[in-house]
Amino acid sequence: MDKHTASTERNAPEVASVARPVLRAGRIRQALLFTASAVLLTLAIFAAISFGAKDLTVSTVWSAVFHYDRSLMTHRIIHELRLPRVLGAAIIGAALAVAGSLIQGITRNPLGDTGVLGINAGAMFVVAVSFAFFPDLPYGTLIILSFLGALMSTLLVFGLGASAPGGLTPMRLTVSGAVTAALLGSMTSGIAIYFDLSQDLAFWYAGGVAGIKWSQLKILAPILLIVIAWSMGLARSISLISMGDEVALNLGLNLRRIRLLGLLTVVVLAGLSVSAAGAIGFVGLVVPHIARKLIGVDYRQIVPLSAILGAVLLVLADLGARMANPPEELAIGIMVSFIGVPFFLFLARKERREL
Amino acid sequence: MSRSLGTGDTRTTKAWLVCFVLAGISFAVLVLGLNTGTIRIPPLRVLDTLFGGGSGRDHMVLFEYRLPRIVVTVLAGAGLGAAGAVMQGLSRNALADPGVLGLHAGAALGLVMYVSFFRDLEGSVALFIPLFTFAGGVVAAVLIVMLSYSGSRGIVPVRLILSGIGVASGLSAITLYWSLRLDEDTYAFTARWLAGSVWGRDWIHAVALLPWIVIVLPYVLSQTRSLNNLSLGDETAAGIGTSVKRQRLILLGAAVALSSASVSMAGGIGFIGLIAPHLARRLVGPMYQHLLPVAALVGVVILVTADTIGRSVFQSNAIPAGVVVAVIGAPYFLFLLSRTK
């Protein structure tokens, strides 16, 4: 990892130059932002539970959540179908957004995202293989495999980029990530086609949160929440790294250790998310940029705000995917792409660096 | 490429020889491929049937079912290989590939538009399919060029690749959304198409693809001098007397036509346009009068082989050729990426 430090210094006009953010939002502004986004998330979750194939009133939702009654059909719909789905979307959205913000900070690449860099695709490929050959694996095992898949593609992409002459430029990382994603995605669809995997086709092409069950959520949610909290602990060091290697080195930071820890965190977040919801791209790309624009360049605020906003985005995208063309469901990744792609192109246009 | 420079004559002879060998390989793979699947025809019987012998059943299977698909595969392979060679020359970027740059995603959108208009992939309206995919390819190309163009610097290579990735994702999302709005089956067809399965299997599909390749490919072959000049760099090309802007636009249009028409019948197959020119350069050097025909033939060999592997090795449920190509092609791309500056 140290090999490319020299080269990244040469081309390190910061992420900040892309977003032109407020340098650091004042205390009051920060408090307001967090309160507002938390309110927004609550509203989004309630809307997503209420609307769907069967519209429900807010009072029904309220009583179903807080005074659950097994004998009522509406309560059962909410409890068995909507709640795990919506909560799953929220927690996975948060995880993907945090993973994106970490990777953008570590690589100083404004286009960093677990989808673009092929990390999701690695996890997805392993999930497809295990569905094909060992369809009855317990979910706990699948999580571990998914994590290993994400680890494999991360090592591949970063290893390739770093071994090249000129080192790990943001451009090279993005391209090798995109090609790795194409390769693994292609193999995933090949496996899905060849083995006639009965799972909804959309899951294999653009992810989906429809199938999340309480049993999965029970394992997934605590781990993801712990890892997101742990990411906030890394945030200070990541802030320093994002200012440039010299700054970080002068402050006595162990760059290599932080980078490895950060990447490992990203791999855990991506691997776990994919195991439950397939490969959903762009959340990790778009959300950190919005957070940075709103709250400034300090990752101690960017990471938590990204978590909340990522949850909002995925809950709304899932609601949109359900409402777009009922009774059919659109893949959630397509909905996110609609929001994410224009933004990605806007950023690509601002990219001033050469190869 | 460190290659001893021979005289023009020996190089041309070598190029002819390479072309001949590649054509022979393609033919051999095709004949062997006929010996797989539900109705097998052994190689000798294939040759016999081709020259007028064979039973009536062999005749029907070969000419009605197998041959149109073979023609589609051969034409599409040639189109993709040549399109890649032209794109790499135009952008002077060894990593330019119609698939990576998002042209195929545009073609896919065109295909879905066609389906929502005509709802029929079989009848004589199928002649319009390449027209729609070409329109989609042009839309994608215009978008990518606009996004990567900067007033002061022309087309910025970094932005070209990044815009390509973004445009490809965006257009694929629109395509899948639109196909799901039509019906489940179209959605499944589109998803499979995006994975790169050769689906053109009737004479109508071969006929639809034929004019695009037999008109555009010879035209591009007649332009090898401009391609040679353009790949030297704009100043040099202008100095020699090439009208750079116009030539580049026309040739880009030709490359989009070749690749969009090819994928219209063969599915969104990436990487052929990337690998074929590279292998061709290794075989016959960088001059376009040798490179272009060889790249087209390498494209044929790759697609024919990938399709045969996908259908015969994985019996009962064929794997799309695009997946086979990606498994071989992506590592090669990554290898190239790790060596270019």
Automatic annotation (TrEMBL), chain B:
Q: Which GO terms describe its molecular function?
A: transmembrane transporter activity
Give the transmembrane region(s).
Answer: 15-34, 67-87, 99-118, 124-148, 160-180, 203-221, 249-275, 287-306, 318-337
Decide whether keyword Membrane is in the record: yes
Q: Name one GO biological process term.
A: siderophore-iron import into cell
Keywords assigned by UniProt, alphabetized? Cell membrane, Membrane, Transmembrane, Transmembrane helix, Transport
Q: Which InterPro entries match?
A: ABC_BtuC-like (IPR037294), ABC_transptr_permease_BtuC (IPR000522)
The compartments listed are:
Cell membrane
Q: Which GO terms describe its cellular component?
A: plasma membrane
Instruction: Tell whether Transmembrane helix is among the UniProt keywords.
Output: yes
Topology versus the membrane:
Multi-pass membrane protein
What the record says about family reads: Belongs to the binding-protein-dependent transport system permease family. FecCD subfamily.
UniProt protein name: Ferrichrome transporter permease fhuG
Taxonomic source organism: Paenibacillus polymyxa
Q: What lineage is this protein's organism placed in?
A: Bacteria, Bacillati, Bacillota, Bacilli, Bacillales
> Gene encoding it?
feuC_1
